[in-house]
Design brief:
By secondary structure, this protein is mostly helical. The protein has ten helices and no strands.
Length: 215
Amino acid sequence: MSSARRPYNSPIRQQQADETRQRIVEAARKLMLASGFDGTTIEAIASEADVSVQTVYAIFGSKKGIVAELMDRARFGDAYRKAVTKTREAKDAVARLRGVASVTREVYASERAEMEVLRGAGAVAPELALREREAESQRFEAQGRNADFLTASGRLRPGITTSAARDIMWALTGRETFRMLVVERRWSLSRYEDWLADTLIRALLTDEPPRRRRR
């Protein structure tokens, strides 16, 4: 009687794969910092990471795939995760919205810094359009969860539905607003975050907390 073979998952092998992936990403970032996106080749990345060209293609598919990974790592690093955790642990509506502003700042500030490193990577924007649409969809869903929290808190302004609150948060936390204020008008990151938090609070919340019902 023959027995079916079970897939072999080696923790050591997975660790080696993760380390290889990390070396490739770090090598690409270093080279693009020095030579820009267009001036960096897959061959150079492979050499810097001490792997074969075939390995780079097998893991990332192309330079665009590496750029996508670099952007994701920049956007969703430790500072982002800490801001998200703090936001989710908020006990009241005001703290929740200030958390939303903090998360938004972390994402766009990190993204902007990485794009300055990846000079010329703007040329691959059409190739990353699908990933960006997915990210926007995830952002919209996240604001839906925040809107549910505000509704449950009883602090939404009269006439503002949960759906409307989600739409308002999604619009105000968009990348374009960050670009106009921080990049074009040269606002500091702290000024942008404070403005965004105050604007969200004024737009969405009542001035007074809900009164407790008498028993």
